[in-house]
Amino acid sequence: MPIRYIKAAPTTYVIQFQDGKVKREGPGLSFLYWAPTTTLVAVPLASADVPFVFNEVTRDFQAVTLQGQLTYRVADPKRLASLLDYSIAPSGKYLSNDPEKLEERLVQVAQVRAHAVVQAMELREVLVRSEVVEAQVLAGLGTADAIRMLGVEVMGFSLLSVRPTPEMSRALEAEAREGLQRRADEAIYARRNSAVEQERRIKESELATELAVEEKRRQIREAQMAADIAVEEQRAALMERWTQNERQAADARAYALEKVLAPVRDVDWKTLMAANGGGNDPKLNIALAFREMAENAGKIGELNMSPELLSGLLGPTQREPHPEPQRTRSNK
């Protein structure tokens, strides 16, 4: 049937060529056309994602695999339609493979930019700073002439994974594992050191407490000793005062006695005895007589004493019968 009808989606830019001239163009058109003399071009305007996998080499000569996706959209469909064949058959299928070549060209440009970025970085930096790679590659794609000439705008460049070779991955894992183990050991040592430090502080606190207690005890002992010394000093002062008082009292008594005895100091004891009434006591008189005889024993030739005299001198309880009188003789 020569007359056909086309209805395009809003995200499809349609260009109708008839007799080699553009008859109508725009997104989402619907119209009838004469099939034998009409060529239809449909350029998708919606954004699309293109997956990719790049194998690159870093600055330190280590292989790395970049996997991700590239997001783009057609900004100038007329330019793209002039460079690539986007003509469609009445069934809606493309008449050539050019639409597929667009994604290949974008991936190639992205790989060139990624190659330049990765070669300027070391493996470890590429692995831990993938956002830097994404930003630099995206900036390079935005200024790439090959993409701008196609009328395409790159909207995003995302890395889903960055993987080194299995051998290098195991080496990095071992290094990281050793580093983690070393940090774990350091943490254990730090905890032990902290425990030792805390124990030392506790010991120092206990020693300081003991020293403070001993200092208080020493102060208490010193206070007690000071109190005892004060008491002893007071007691010594009291004893000294008492001694002085006793000495003064003794001096006073001696002085009084001396004054009392002064008048009779040169008087004979016999006179004193007689003055005190000693002559009225027979026993005392006999004793004085015996004393005087003893003083004059050299003048006495013979002395006779009766038992009754001795009995009277000794008292009634000590009297004993004497059959014969005693005779004392001195032949001096």
Secondary structure layout plus pairing:
Layout lengths: L2 E5 L4 E7 L2 E7 L2 E5 L3 E7 L3 E10 L5 E12 L2 H7 L3 E2 L9 H22 L3 H6 L1 H13 L2 H6 L1 E13 L1 H96 L7 H7 L6 H14 L6 E4 L1 H8 L11 E4 L3
Antiparallel strand pairs: 1-4, 2-3, 2-5, 5-8, 6-7, 7-9, 10-11
Can you walk me through this structure?
This protein has 332 residues and is of the alpha+beta class. It has a domain at 269-329. Helix content is 54%, strand content 23%. Strands 3-2-5-8 form a four-stranded antiparallel sheet, with helices on one face. Strands 6-7-9 form a three-stranded antiparallel sheet. The chain has a two-stranded antiparallel sheet with strand order 1-4. Strand 2 and strand 3 (21-27) form a beta hairpin. It is rod-shaped, with a radius of gyration of 73 Å. The termini are far apart.
Keywords for this entry:
alpha+beta; 4-stranded antiparallel β-sheet; 3-stranded antiparallel β-sheet; 11 strands; rod-shaped; disordered C terminus
Structure summary:
With 332 residues, the chain is an alpha+beta fold. It has helices at 77-83, 98-119, 123-128, 130-142, 145-150, 166-261, 269-275, 282-295, 307-314; strands spanning 3-7, 12-18, 21-27, 30-34, 38-44, 48-57, 63-74, 87-88, 152-164, 302-305, 326-329.
